[in-house]
Amino acid sequence: ILKRIGHDVTFERKKYHIDIPGMSSQEVNDLVGQVIYEDTPIMDPVPHSLESMKIIFEMINKPLQIITARGDNVRTKTNDWLKDHIKNQFEYKAIYTDHKSKNAFFDKDTRFFVDDHPHFVSDASKVLEHVFLMDKSWNENIRLPRNVSRIDSLKTVVLVLKKILATEGIHWQNKISE
Description:
37% of the residues lie in helices and 13% in strands. By secondary structure, the protein is an alpha/beta fold. The strands form 2 sheets. A 3-stranded parallel beta sheet has the order 3-4-5, with helices on both faces. It has a two-stranded parallel sheet with strand order 1-2.
């Protein structure tokens, strides 16, 4: 956005809404959508996320659901990005909610969920065993339901799942690299 319109929209602490002088909320929303659409092919994965997702897949032995609020307008680019980066490391299915509640898209046996958006985390916490909130500046001052943990990376999810599975009599020996 800085390159496109000369305005820095770096997230400020405790602020989720993006204000751009002279633009309506809808115009800002449209601009952010365009940037996501255009930049998806060049975005790198979050560090250690693919390694962690592979381990989680091996732990639960089921395809991972990648549920995104993104709409159909970025489906092809996002699917291509996923294929390019995940390759054959683990099975997954990508689900596009077009900004609807993600709860309607969980498999019947879904127990855990990771997201960085406070609304989706709160919503999911009502129907799932445990939810993980990826720590970001825009979600830092929200009150978390009892079954939600704030995490800094998917490595933490691996560690928590290892403990949960151990209480169920399933022991996981693989270690995630530091």
